[in-house]
Amino acid sequence: xxxxxxxxxxxxxxxxxxxxxxxxxxxxxxxxxxxxxxxxxxxxxxxxxxxxxxxxxxxxxxxxxxxxxxxxxxxxxxxxxxxxxxxxxxxxxxxxxxxxxxxxxxxxxxxxxxxxxxxxxxxxxxxxxxxxxxxxxxxxxxxxxxxxxxxxxxxxxxxxxxxxxxxxxxx
Length: 171
Known about the structure:
The chain is of the alpha/beta class. It is 32% helix and 22% strand. It is globular and about 35 Å long.
């Protein structure tokens, strides 16, 4: 169990991508991590196909000093997440504290909204490339890009590489 004793936050919002939420959720539990689901205040969130998730923590109550890593799944959820000042705060605080911040697919929108991309190398879903570049990042078309404590991937097909990079960063 490579992640025993590590504590993860995973953000959730309506219209999340099932693979990009559930695969990391179970993978990191499998490796011994404690994974807490963070929502913006609702009791239930639904994926693009209606699969429900119930949060463990309201984002207003998150103390980022108690966690080692943050996972931001994609889908269209990040476009809703970035409207929450507290969701953006959590991303910015985790990054500034040197904690692992991992974003996949459209989750790069959250990184841009948190103002943490200037001078960083990242990847993401090709449709948000311009958003990432305009936020100051260098876009690289690769299955996973690691730049310091920031880990990014493009799409569900990249999940294995995404997981490996996160596990390596925390091991």
